[in-house]
Amino acid sequence: MKFTPEQAAKVAALARLTLPEDKLEHLAAQMGDILSYMDTLASCPTDGVEPLYSPVEHDTPMREDKARKTCQRADVLAQAPESDGRFFIVPKIVAG
Fold it and tell me: Which three-class secondary structure state does DSSP give residue 23?
């Protein structure tokens, strides 16, 4: 399926992404490949095929659902770009 750079720009705008013009051709080609693959999948006969939760058959290991501390606050905050010692400090994203 052909996907044009103009369509890629429209999808990017809907996703609120700002993409440079030189990337739109590449993105359009990738989206076209994805849609072609979806067309291929849609053409596969699936009558009588049971739905799967996962294509891999394996047992899910069970463990006790028990709350426990795995990290210390100071260790986590030490990895943040900025903190006040108790919380992460992040840029304001909502005006008001």
Answer: helix
Nearest to 9 by CA among 74, 25, 1: 25
Residue-wise pLDDT tens digits, 14-53: 999 999 999 999 999 999 999 999 999 999 999 998 888 8
pTM over 0.70: no
Can you count the helices (H) and strands (E) in the chain? 3, 0
CA angle 46, 50, 51 (to 5 degrees): 95
Tokens for 88, please give them. 């992460």
Closest CA to 76 of 87, 68, 66: 87
